[in-house]
Structures are given as structure tokens and as C-alpha cells.
């Protein structure tokens, strides 16, 4: 594991503070008047999910977290438990709590592949593909004359997620959804 200087602490890096792994959500190196530069960061605790702000100074160094990324397969969910297995061996099953998965639960379909983040042999989070294709199961009907300004409507996807889409989207169609922002990207043929 390497040590990072204050200005090497950037977005999408994992660091260790107080013995726990943190993901750097934002970072901004700046200088106030005649003072030394500071890196103002927003950090997410990978275990508790708590987000905090922290400023690193020129003399600060921090240890980079050794986060292992391993492909896993989502099997099913039941009563707040989300069951996964190794991508190559279905007998190696484990469960994750809904609180650990967060918004990722809105985009998981059975047999879909995700990337598990492992720290000290413990799964501390998951990464989804940036875009997933999901089927629309409920869509309100189009209202004639409501599309003059490019109207939108709220539809329900097969995973239960609600997404704002253009008026022309109908029930039964497949949509590509951005899992980072939760927004509609395009209709899939």
C-alpha cells in the first residue's frame, strides 16, 4: 500500500483514515491568499456510509486503501437480505444488508453481475455497471397535447425503481438507465 500526498487525494480513490476505508467523492486543491495550499475533500466512509468533509494540508500524507474488486452475481432478495454468489461458483453464497447496498438495489436483476469491493476480506460495498437495461412495467398513458414542451412522465421499472422519462415511452419497452444518476438514457430496441 502506498502513501498519497495531499494533492494526490482525488475523486474515486480509496484511502484509510482512523483504520477505516474511505472513498474520495470530491476534492479541490486551492490556496487562500498567502497561505499554503489545501485539498478540501468530501469523504464517504465505506463501512458506515457516513459522508464527511476533511481538509488535507501540504504536510499531510495518507495511506491508500487496498480495495480488491471481484465480480459477483446477484441471486435474489428476501426480507431486506440481498443474496450473491461468486461469478464462477454458485455454491459460495453470501448475503448483504440493504443498508450496505444503498441505491444499488433499484437496479439489480437476478443473475446480473456486479463488482464487489472487498477490504480486509469483508465486502464493504458494490459497484454496478454504469448503465443497465430494464423493462418498463407501469407507464401512465400519453395525454394528447402534453408534449409541446417535451413533457415527461414517471414510469415504474421491473426492479421497482421509478424513473422520469419522455412521454413517448410505453409499458413493455426496455430502457437504458444510468445507475450513477438514476436517469433515463435511451430506449433500447
Query: Which of globular, elongated, flat, extended, rod-shaped describes the shape?
Result: flat
State the secondary-structure class. mainly beta
Order of helices and strands: EEEEEEEEEHEEEEEEE
Overall pLDDT level: 88
Query: Which stretches are poorly predicted, pLDDT < 50 over at least 5 residues?
Result: none
| Strand content range | over 45%
Number of strands: 16
- Compute the gyration radius: what is it? 21 Å
- Helix content bin: under 10%
- What is the terminal-to-terminal distance? 45 Å
Biggest β-sheet description: 6 strands, antiparallel
3D architecture notes:
This protein has 189 residues and is mainly beta. The chain is 2% helix and 54% strand. The protein has one helix at residues 98-101, and strands at 3-5, 14-17, 20-30, 38-45, 51-57, 61-64, 68-78, 81-86, 93-97, 113-119, 122-127, 131-138, 152-157, 162-166, 174-178, 183-188. The strands form three sheets. Strands 1-6-2-3-4-5 form a six-stranded antiparallel sheet, with no helix packed on it. Strands 9-8-7-10-11 form a five-stranded antiparallel sheet. The protein has a five-stranded antiparallel sheet with strand order 14-13-12-15-16, with no helix packed on it. Strand 3 (20-30) and strand 4 (38-45) form a beta hairpin. The model has no long low-confidence stretch (mean pLDDT 88).
Amino acid at each position: 500500500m502506498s502513501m498519497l500526498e495531499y494533492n494526490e487525494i482525488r475523486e474515486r480513490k480509496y484511502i484509510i483514515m482512523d483504520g477505516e476505508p474511505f472513498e474520495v467523492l470530491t476534492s479541490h486543491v486551492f490556496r487562500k491568499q498567502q497561505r499554503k495550499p489545501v485539498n478540501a475533500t468530501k469523504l464517504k466512509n465505506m463501512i458506515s456510509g457516513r459522508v464527511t468533509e476533511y481538509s488535507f494540508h501540504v504536510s499531510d500524507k495518507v495511506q491508500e486503501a487496498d480495495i480488491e474488486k471481484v465480480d459477483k452475481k446477484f441471486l435474489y432478495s428476501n426480507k431486506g437480505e440481498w443474496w450473491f454468489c461468486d461469478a464462477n461458483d454458485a455454491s459460495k453464497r453470501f448475503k448483504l444488508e440493504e443498508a450496505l447496498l444503498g441505491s444499488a438495489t433499484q437496479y439489480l436483476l437476478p443473475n446480473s453481475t456486479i463488482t464487489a469491493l472487498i477490504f480486509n476480506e469483508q465486502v464493504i460495498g458494490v459497484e454496478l455497471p454504469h448503465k443497465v437495461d430494464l423493462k418498463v412495467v407501469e407507464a401512465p398513458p400519453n395525454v394528447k397535447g402534453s408534449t409541446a414542451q417535451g413533457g415527461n412522465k414517471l414510469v415504474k421499472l421491473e426492479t421497482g425503481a421509478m424513473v422520469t422519462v419522455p412521454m413517448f415511452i410505453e409499458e413493455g419497452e426496455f430502457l437504458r438507465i444510468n445507475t450513477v444518476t438514476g436517469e433515463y438514457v435511451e430506449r433500447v430496441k
